[in-house]
Structure formats: C-alpha cells, structure tokens
Design a protein that fits this description.
GO terms for molecular function: O-methyltransferase activity. By secondary structure, the chain is of the alpha/beta class. The protein has twelve helices and seven strands.
Length: 252
C-alpha cells in the first residue's frame, strides 16, 4: 500500500491505542512497545543520514505495522509549509513522542536549531535514536520534562527574549493554552513568530481554540486548517496556524 492511500477505517493498532489512552497520559507511550519498535524499524529499513527516507520509513511503519500518534504525513505537509514560511533559526516543539515532528521541522528549516520537550524519558530515547540515524542529532535536542513543572524545564531550555521563531504544540491537549502562556510570559516568542497546534479538533483543545479566536487580529492571526487525524481518513481534525502579532499591552 502506497503512503498516499490513507486508511478509511480504524485498524486494530488504532483501537489498541484507544484502550491505552491512560498509558499515554501517564507515561507518554501506548504501552505495547510500538515506539521502540518504530526506532528498530527505522534503523533496519531507512538509509542512514537520509532524513527524507527516515520520515518516509516512519510513515510506512505507522501504515503497515502500528499506528503512531505523531502529526503524520497529511498534516505534516501543513507543518512543513508553516516552518518554511517562518524560516526559523530556533524552533521549539512540545511533545517529542518518537521524534517525527522535530524531523519534519529540521528538514523544512535546515539551518535551524530544534528543541523538543518530552514527558517520557523512554520516548526521548527513541527520538534520539531516530534523529541520530537521520543525521540531525547535532541540531535537534530533547529536554525531558514538562512546561508546567514549576519552571524547571523552562529554565533548562533557557531561551532569550524574542529568540523563538517557531513553536509546534503537539502534547497534552489540556496543556496547550497554559504552556503557550508560560512561554509568552517569558517573552520568548518574537513578534512574527509562527505557532502551529495539532489535534485541535481531535482529541481537541477547545480552550486553546477559544483563546486564539478571542485574540484574533489583536495578539494573533490564525488560520484553521481542516484535515484528518493522522494516518487515516475517517476522523477529521483541525490544525491551527497562528502568527504572533506581539503583546498589544506592551506596545500600547
């Protein structure tokens, strides 16, 4: 089956994902070993140092073996376009999982330093294996932690005010808005930075979507992309792409 043929039905590995939702929330993994299996598959099947082939191989694993909760190939094209538009020197991702989103950011912005925050140390290990195989370990970095841990992870990241050009949010949906606010409070987003949020439709991030709507044209300018959940066509999803217009209070 070619990668352009997204599945119109829910496969066994997707249903098992639904049963493993509690594991995802607490551990960041499904609980059946599919994340480590994905890294094994990449190391066995993808050409070393070929980021395109590594990304394609992850997609193939998700289609042919076990469903993965990364942004996927369809929504990945939206991510690619947003990254190219932002042309970042420094990018931050919230939610590493197996490292797929960071790979797409690194490919679309070949001069960027990409940082990713991940709750699960096991997922971080999987991602680092995949990044090393793709040949980008020198410019893609994972910090194990959460933005909402009282400041430890923010301190570990240690960005300067205005340093962040691009932010990709793809982790705990309830944390989308508070984590964005924590980053804004530190002043890290430069005016004109681009923020992309996955899964705003499913599982859904209603508070984040409402916030972007409330501040449309003042603090943010947002486009909602109607698309599908990763690796199938049965479930629809929303990806929000937002340009940061700056803190109007600071400029007033």
């Amino acid at each position: 089956m070619g990668l352009t043929k997204r599945l119109p039905f829910l496969r066994w590995s997707f249903l098992r994902l639904a049963w493993g939702a509690r594991n995802i929330t607490s551990t960041g993994q499904i609980g059946d070993g599919r994340e480590a299996a994905a890294a094994d598959f990449v190391e066995a099947q993808a050409r070393p140092g070929d980021i395109d082939d590594v990304i394609t191989t992850i997609d193939r694993f998700a289609y042919e073996h076990s469903y993965l909760i990364n942004v996927g190939d369809e929504k990945g094209l939206l991510l690619d376009a947003a990254v190219r538009r932002a042309c970042p020197a420094t990018a931050l991702e919230l939610g590493t999982y197996c490292g797929y989103g960071a790979l797409r950011i690194a490919r679309a912005a070949p001069q960027a330093q990409v940082f990713s925050v991940e709750l699960s140390a096991a997922n971080a290990g999987v991602a680092r294996r995949i990044w090393a195989h793709a040949g980008v370990a020198d410019r893609v970095h994972c910090v194990v932690g959460t933005i909402g841990d009282g400041g430890a992870t923010l301190d570990a990241l240690g960005f300067s005010p205005g340093q962040l050009d691009f932010l990709f949010i793809d982790h705990d949906k309830d944390a989308y808005l508070p984590d964005l606010q924590a980053i804004l409070d530190r002043g890290w987003l430069r005016r004109g930075a681009v923020v992309v949020a996955d899964n705003v439709g499913i599982p859904g991030a209603p508070r984040y979507r409402a916030y972007m709507s409330e501040h449309e044209g003042t603090r943010w300018r947002t486009v909602e992309h109607k698309t599908h959940a990763e690796y199938q066509t049965l479930l629809t999803d929303l990806v929000l792409e937002s340009d940061y217009l700056g803190d109007q209070r600071a400029r007033g």
